[in-house]
Write a structure and sequence with these properties.
Blueprint: H1 2-13, H2 36-40, H3 44-58, H4 60-84, H5 95-108, H6 113-128, H7 130-208, H8 214-277, H9 280-292, H10 296-327, H11 329-337, H12 345-365, H13 369-412, H14 414-438, H15 443-471, H16 478-501, E1 509-513, E2 519-521, E3 532-535, E4 547-551, E5 557-564, E6 568-578, E7 589-593, E8 596-601, E9 614-625, E10 628-636, E11 644-652
Helix pairs in contact: 1-7, 1-8, 3-5, 3-6, 3-10, 4-7, 4-8, 4-9, 5-6, 7-8, 10-12, 12-13, 13-16, 14-15, 15-16
């Protein structure tokens, strides 16, 4: 009986209290991990909320363990208080979590970002102090442990005394039980032997018949009885041994049960405390892991908040980058038109959007200033390379533009012609001014005087643009270079038109290249039947200026805004293509000037064989025009098998002035 008793008593005094000894996780105090310029651009309320969310997220592991400690230890501490009494002070195991939650709430209620950051730093320090609190608990629990051990010893003595009283009772019960069984079995054996002896005597008498020998029969029966008694006695002893062993086993079981009942009655709360503290560290870890999942929402919330803040800071910069890319469209179009290499702007914009999403994803997950700087640096490095590539293409394009334009100017001798024309115009002006000093000028001379003054101004402006072009460098802004080239080209065309206005008959002329339209009004483009500006078309017979308009369908129009230097009746000449492979008139156009229809004009009537046909001038009509700006529309009359192939237009006040 004693080993069981001692084993049960030992449970009361060994390992009654196992306070968790694992280190507490650090938490809180997270830096915002945002660039200063981002912090400066974000409302304080959003930053305070971010600090709170990040502190809560980073405190998740510690909070989960504090919850587990509180949940597992609180009922045990209350049971200890009931066992040892109110005279012993026990630690408040709920206080660490309550204090930590209060500090988190203080962050949320902070009036400024600086105060929220200070509170977060204090929270971090509080997390580091949790280990010290656990160590204090060990000292605070020591009086209770001593009291519980004394209680256990007292209970053990009490139980042992009761067990000592139970042992004689159990032994008496065993003796009484065995004696009754032995007496009963002896009576059974006696009766059995008596029956067997009588039966043997009767059998011997019957077998002897008339020769019966009483003494012999008696000796036989006596020998049989003695042998049977010896046999049954041996069997009885074996049965008694088995019964004793079984009785002892039953007695031991009854004793164990009674001892357990005694221990339960006397020390139930002690046993409950012992079981409660069993494997406490492991149970805290398991419960904390389960609770940790409840805090994942705060990680997601903090990352989402940071991503929102960073996106608000990044979006304007990305928008500026997109605007810079889109602003390259005219330059890219010009480069492609000149057959030069140019970036795909749509692909660049798509790549910018993809890189932006990757950047925002990395920024949202960043947990430190260094990770943010690495993400931004990665993004900037990629786009810095693209910027340099585009800059290189722009410089290359600018150089090619300057070289090509300069080559054309040099080959055409433009500057020399302008200076010669300026000298001639100046001489003509001087001559007319000398005539004017001698008396009124004729109408013809007045028109020529106005013409030469306008031409002189145009020539001076052209030469000024030539000088500006000479000073241009490939590293200059490409937009400015393109604008300079456009202004120079427009000025040279204006000078050319002005120069063509003077005829040997003294009339005023206005020359317009068909390809220099102000605007177009065209139908939707088709695969095989659409209007197009033909530039340097080798299949056409030398159009004026190197280009013409192929106007294919009825209702499509070319629109021109032009300026008239002086009032007068102007004759309109049209230079277009004709051939003999289509009926005459299928290339007719309707000319509308300032909203009034001048007439429907068929193609020229020269009509040579096709190909190639011929560009030729023919007069379209006369219109009265005032000095100033005017508007002309040239409209294809109908959709026919022949397009209107237009090369140039010429207005002149001289009816004899054929271009």
């Amino acid at each position: 009986m004693k080993p069981l008793l001692y084993r049960l008593i030992a449970l009361l005094v060994v390992g009654l209290l196992l306070v968790p000894a694992r280190p507490a996780r650090a938490a809180g105090g997270e830096d915002l991990a945002l660039p200063p310029e981002v912090i400066a651009s974000v409302p304080p309320a959003d930053l305070i909320e971010l600090i709170y969310d990040m502190s809560l997220w980073k405190s998740a592991d510690l909070l989960a363990h504090l919850e587990a400690v509180e949940e597992l230890l609180s009922p045990l501490v209350e049971d200890m208080r009931q066992v040892v009494g109110p005279q012993i002070t026990l630690p408040d195991v709920t206080k660490p979590r309550k204090d930590f939650i209060a500090k988190l709430d203080a962050i949320k209620r902070s009036p400024t970002v600086a105060e929220a950051q200070r509170q977060a730093n204090e929270l971090s320090q509080s997390a580091r102090n949790v280990n010290a609190i656990y160590q204090q608990w060990m000292a605070q629990f020591q009086p209770a442990i001593t009291a519980l051990q004394a209680k256990g010893t007292e209970v053990a003595a009490k139980v042992q005394a009761k067990v000592a009283g139970l042992i004689p009772q159990v032994e008496a019960q065993i003796r009484q039980e065995l004696e009754g069984k032995v007496n009963s079995r002896v009576a059974e054996i006696k009766a059995d032997i008596s029956r067997k002896a009588q039966a043997r005597a009767q059998a011997a008498v019957a077998a002897a018949g008339r020769n019966i020998d009483p003494m012999a029969i008696q000796r036989d029966v006596t020998d049989f009885v003695m042998a049977e008694v010896e046999r049954q006695q041996a069997q009885l002893m074996a049965e008694i041994q088995q019964d004793v062993a079984a009785a002892e086993q039953r007695a031991r079981q009854r004793m164990d049960a009674q001892i357990r009942q005694l221990i339960e009655a006397e020390s139930g709360k002690l046993l409950k405390l012992k079981d409660g503290f069993e494997n406490m560290d492991q149970r805290i870890e398991e419960l904390a892991r389960k609770k940790l999942a409840n805090y994942d929402v705060y990680r997601q919330k903090a990352q989402q908040k940071k991503a929102e803040i960073l996106q608000r800071a990044v979006e304007p910069q990305i928008a500026k980058a997109a605007a810079v890319i889109k602003a390259q469209a005219p330059f890219v179009a010009a480069a492609k038109a000149q057959g030069r290499q140019a970036p795909d702007l749509d692909a660049l914009l798509a790549q910018l959007e993809a890189d932006k999403q990757l950047l925002l994803s990395r920024l949202g997950k960043a947990e430190s200033q260094q990770e943010i700087e690495e993400a931004v640096s990665f993004f900037q490095a990629g786009w810095e390379a693209k910027r340099k590539e585009m800059e290189g293409l722009k410089v290359q394009g600018a150089q090619e533009l300057l070289q090509e334009t300069g080559s054309r100017l040099q080959q055409a001798g433009v500057e020399a012609k302008l200076r010669s024309g300026l000298a001639s115009a100046s001489e003509g002006l001087a001559a007319l001014e000398r005539v004017q000093t001698r008396g009124p000028l004729s109408e013809k001379d007045k028109k020529r005087l106005a013409y030469l003054r306008a031409l002189q101004g145009q020539l001076k402006e052209g030469l000024a643009l030539i000088d500006e072009f000479k000073q241009a460098k490939p590293t200059d802004d490409l937009a400015s270079l393109l604008n300079l080239v456009d202004r120079l080209q427009s000025k040279l065309e204006a000078i050319q038109r002005a120069a063509s206005q003077e005829s040997s008959f003294g009339g005023v002329g206005i020359f317009i290249e068909a390809e220099n339209e102000t605007a177009t009004r065209l139908l939707k483009r088709t695969e095989d039947w659409h209007s197009v500006k033909e530039v340097k078309a080798t299949w056409r017979p030398s159009p004026s200026g190197g280009a013409d308009w192929y106007l294919s369908r009825g209702g499509e129009a070319l629109i021109y805004d032009f300026e008239v230097p002086v009032d007068g009746d102007y004759f309109l000449w049209i230079r277009d293509l004709s051939a003999n492979n289509h009926p005459a008139g299928e290339g007719s156009v309707r000319v509308v000037i300032d909203g009034a229809v001048l007439g429907i004009i068929p193609e020229n009537s020269v009509r040579p064989p096709y190909p190639p046909g011929i560009f030729a001038w023919h007069q379209a009509g006369k219109v009265a025009l005032k000095a100033g700006k005017h508007h002309m529309e040239v409209v294809k009359v109908a959709t026919t098998s022949l397009a209107a192939i237009l090369d140039a237009f010429y207005f002149t006040t001289n009816p004899e002035d054929k271009p």
